[in-house]
Each structure stands twice: as C-alpha cells, then as structure tokens.
C-alpha cells in the first residue's frame, strides 16, 4: 500500500520538477518505468500511476509537453491481469506534445508521433504517425533526432509518401 502511494507521489512530482533529461526520468525510474539513456521527458507528462512497470522507453526518446501514457484501461477493482497491457516506446522515437498513448501500443524505433495524436494501435518503425484517426503518414528516411541532436531540415527533406 505504502509503495503504491509513494509511486503516485513520485509521478505527480515528476510532472512539474525541472530536469527533462535528469530528474524527471530518474523519478519515473524510481516508480518502476524502464527508461533508457538520453531520454527527454517534458513537463506535465502523465505516465500511468497504477502500472508504471508496464512501460518501457528506449534510448534517445523525446516525449513532448502534456503527453499521457496509459498502461491500463479499466475502472474500479479488477482481477489482476485484466485490462492492462504494456506500452513500449522504442529507441530514437519522438512523441509530439499533447499525445495520448493507450495500453498495448508499441511506438517503433525512429518514429515521430504528430502533436495531438491519440495512438490506439502500434506504430511501425520509421514512420511519421498522426492525424485523426491516427495512421502512418510518411516513411522516415532521415531521423529527426540522432545522437541527441535535432536535424529538422534533413528530416523533412527525407520524408517519403506512403
């Protein structure tokens, strides 16, 4: 009981403290979220408070302002094992601001999720993903981020229509 309360307090604290590369990821790791190296978590990002251990974030991932990541979809008392599924965000992914990622979703390596997207199904590696309903928009041939650096012009030039 005390562990779950502490997890929730750490999650709320991680939403507002400074340190997108340092303190925020560290607090989420303390909660049980598996987080790789060089991960940026913006302010006001909600990462599931009930099942943080079901979330895995790879190296060099950027998560934009006010994103929400759910690893469960149920209300009230449910038997263990129902209504939950992990969320995997693979390396070099970029999640734009105000995105919602639902349980059971994998965001493929090097993919970019457009701001405001609701992701209800897995995103293939190396695609630009968004709009309502969210779907692949283009094939990415040059990553948006590489080694912690953003190269927007090369990224846009390298987009190939699906």
Report what the structure shows.
The chain has helices at 2-16, 23-31, 152-157, and strands spanning 34-35, 40-41, 46-47, 55-57, 62-63, 68-69, 87-89, 94-95, 100-101, 106-107, 112-113, 118-119, 127-130, 135-140, 145-146, 149-150, 159-161. The chain is globular and about 50 Å long. The chain has 162 residues and is of the alpha/beta class. The protein has a seven-stranded mixed sheet with strand order 2-5-8-11-13-14-17.
Query: Mean pLDDT score, rounded?
Result: 90
Taking all Cα atoms into account, the compactness measure Rg is 16 Å
Beta-strand proportion = 25-35%
Secondary-structure element series: HHEEEEEEEEEEEEEEEEHE
Given the structure, what is the number of helices?
A: 3
Give me the secondary-structure category: alpha/beta
Helix percentage: 10-25%
User: Biggest sheet, in brief?
Assistant: 7 strands, mixed
Shape summary: globular
| Neighbour order of strands in the largest sheet | 2-5-8-11-13-14-17
**Terminal CA distance:** 49 Å
List the uncertain runs: none
The assembly state of the depicted protein chains is single chain
> Using DSSP, what is the number of strands?
17
Pfam families: Hexapep (PF00132), Hexapep_2 (PF14602)
InterPro entries: Hexapep (IPR001451), Hexapeptide_acetyltransf (IPR051159), Trimer_LpxA-like_sf (IPR011004)
Protein name: Acetyltransferase
């Amino acid at each position: 009981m005390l562990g779950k309360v502490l997890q929730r307090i750490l999650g709320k604290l991680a939403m507002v403290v400074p340190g997108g590369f340092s303190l925020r990821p560290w607090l989420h790791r303390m909660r049980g979220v598996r987080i790789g190296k060089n991960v940026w978590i913006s302010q006001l990002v909600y990462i599931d408070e009930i099942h943080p251990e079901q979330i895995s974030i790879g190296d060099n991932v950027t998560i934009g302002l006010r994103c929400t990541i759910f690893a469960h979809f149920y209300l009230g008392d449910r038997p263990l094992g129902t209504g939950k599924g992990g969320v995997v965000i693979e390396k070099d992914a970029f999640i734009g601001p105000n995105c919602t990622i639902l349980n059971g979703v994998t965001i493929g390596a090097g993919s970019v999720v457009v701001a405001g997207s609701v992701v209800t199904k897995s995103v293939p590696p190396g695609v630009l993903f968004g709009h309502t309903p969210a779907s692949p928009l283009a094939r990415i041939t040059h990553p948006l981020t590489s080694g912690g650096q953003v190269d927007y012009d090369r990224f846009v030039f390298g987009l190939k229509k699906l």
